[in-house]
Write a structure and sequence with these properties.
Order of helices and strands: HHHEEHEHHHEHHHHHHHHHEEEEHHEEEE
Oligomer: single chain
Largest sheet: 5 strands, mixed
Helix content: 40-55%
Radius of gyration: 22 Å
Bound molecules: protoporphyrin IX containing FE
Structural class: alpha+beta
């Protein structure tokens, strides 16, 4: 049995039946439609569905989702958001909610583990994502962004999302995995592309292992096998490298980190799972945030001029504010989810164990009390002082806050700087975009189409 087969065999996709499914009278009010319809509405139409539920039920409501009609209780409000983020991680589990990604990310994935396993993995991964580590990554990200931007067609409309996906993927391969060998990069690119394209049908199919012998599921298993082979080869070679301490990529840092943190170092299987997790969590999220930023800049000449000035003068704070405002107005992930391991009172509501709870990022970012004129794109919000705590939450919060938050903001600033020093950016009249759910993230439906021309 190969490591891939072993990993797939160990993944248990069956729903957790150790908790009974609560009845309606144990929950806040919510829609009564079949769970499949509610799940589909949440997946497909979350941008209109969730605000509609708030209008109907207020700042707390319960959804019923497949499988089993398991409830998800969504909240809105800074106080309850704080309570959930700061809550005891033994009570508020995060890993369970992401179990559907298990067969791809693997059982050791930071996103999937809870309790002591999470604490250890987080401790080992954290040094590579500290603010002080970012400077080491910036040079390679800048080189990747420069090459990408130089290749853009001028005066011709294109989908910025596709180009941003290409940039962020290259960043993961070179800066996170630290692969430098061109031949290996060429073999990795199609495999990571296929891995990040997780269709809902594929995800649902994981619950039925016999499907892995057929059609699209069989192909996914084959891609996984080939990707794992390359990753394990890379890890083995890197372990033998004599210059690990001088290397600045994430994988090299993860290989040396155990000793200094006083923890058992990460095994090959753990490293593989964390690399795939970073790939899936860090690639399309950042690409979508960046393409929305370019879209907003392309629709507003004054904003373009201000952002170009910031790029020219090295005003990174302004470019970071553009990226933050992009993540506010166009949240990539709609909510943060925790699984209740015991009955608890959340936001003043008594809730049973065995349900998911979480703050709605969408509702929080649209709250006019904290973000006046919430539909306007205004980076200045992040310069005239910070938003109130627990209101700007694109990266979640607490012990599970996105480990790549600083990384994605650094990447965003570098890419915006390279685009804006080179080009004027425009969105053609009538080419408005709106969010659509792809894989697990919200992306611009039409790919945030822009036209660029060299600056005069
Ligand atoms: C704009 C870009 C990004 C957005 C909007 C985003 C959003 C999120 C959110 C909402 C969570 C869940 C937080 C919670 O449960 O409280 C998360 C977790 C995570 N993200 Fe990100 N993310 C982004 C970029 C990245 C990048 C660049 C990486 C790595 C290279 C990354 C790696 C992770 C990991 C490993 C976790 C799990 C953390 C844990 O459970 O301890 N993300 N992210």
């Amino acid at each position: 049995m190969s490591l891939t087969d072993d990993r797939l065999a160990k993944m248990n996709m069956r729903p957790d039946r150790s908790f009974p499914v609560p009845s309606d009278d144990e929950l806040p009010a919510g829609p009564r439609w079949p769970a499949l319809v509610q799940s589909a509405a949440l997946m497909r139409f979350r941008h209109s569905f969730i605000p509609a539920l708030q209008r109907r039920y207020g700042d707390v409501f319960a959804l019923r989702l497949v499988p089993e009609r398991r409830p998800l209780v969504l909240f809105h409000g800074a106080e309850v958001t704080k309570q959930i983020f700061a809550g005891n991680p033994e009570l508020f589990h995060a890993g369970k909610g992401n179990a559907v990604l298990g067969p791809i990310m693997g059982q050791h994935s930071l996103l999937l583990v809870d309790g002591a396993d999470h604490k250890r993995a987080r401790k080992l991964l954290m040094p590579a994502f500290r603010q002080s580590a970012m400077a080491g990554y910036e040079e390679v990200v800048t080189r990747i962004a420069k090459d990408e931007v130089a290749s853009w067609p001028r005066g011709e409309e294109f989908r910025s999302l596709e180009r941003m996906n290409a940039v962020t993927l290259e960043v993961i391969l070179r800066v996170v995995f630290g692969v430098a060998d061109e031949e290996r990069l060429a073999r990795l690119r199609p495999l990571v592309n296929a891995t990040v394209d997780i269709k809902p049908l594929i995800l649902l199919g994981w619950g039925y292992p016999f499907l892995q012998r057929f059609g699209p599921w069989k192909r996914v298993v084959e891609v996984q096998r080939q990707l794992d082979e390359l990753l394990y080869a890379e890890i083995a070679e890197r372990r033998r490298a004599g210059d690990l301490h001088e290397r600045t990529d994430v994988l090299s840092q993860l290989l040396v980190v155990g000793d200094s943190e006083g923890e058992e170092p990460l095994s090959d299987a753990e490293l593989r799972d964390q690399l795939v997790t970073l790939l899936l969590a860090g690639h399309e999220t950042t690409a979508s945030g960046l393409s929305w930023a370019l879209y907003e800049i392309g629709r507003d000449e004054a904003l373009l001029a201000r952002a170009q000035e910031a790029a020219d003068t090295g005003d990174d704070d302004y470019l970071e504010a553009v990226m933050k405002e992009s993540l506010r107005l166009h949240p990539i992930i709609p909510m943060v989810v925790r699984f209740l391991m015991r009955p608890a009172t959340v936001g003043g509501v008594d809730l049973p164990a065995g349900i998911s709870v979480g703050p709605s990022i969408l509702l929080s970012h649209q709250d006019p009390e904290h973000f006046p004129e919430p539909d306007r794109f205004r980076p200045e919000r992040f310069l005239d002082g910070n938003p109130a705590p627990n209101t700007w939450i694109p990266f979640g919060g607490g012990v599970r806050r996105c480990i790549g938050a600083g990384f994605s903001l650094m990447e965003g600033v570098v890419v915006l700087r390279e685009v804006l020093t080179a080009y004027d950016v425009k969105v053609l009249p009538g080419h408005d975009d709106k969010p659509r759910v792809r894989n697990i993230t919200s992306v611009p439906d039409k790919g945030a189409r822009i036209v660029v021309s060299p600056r005069g």
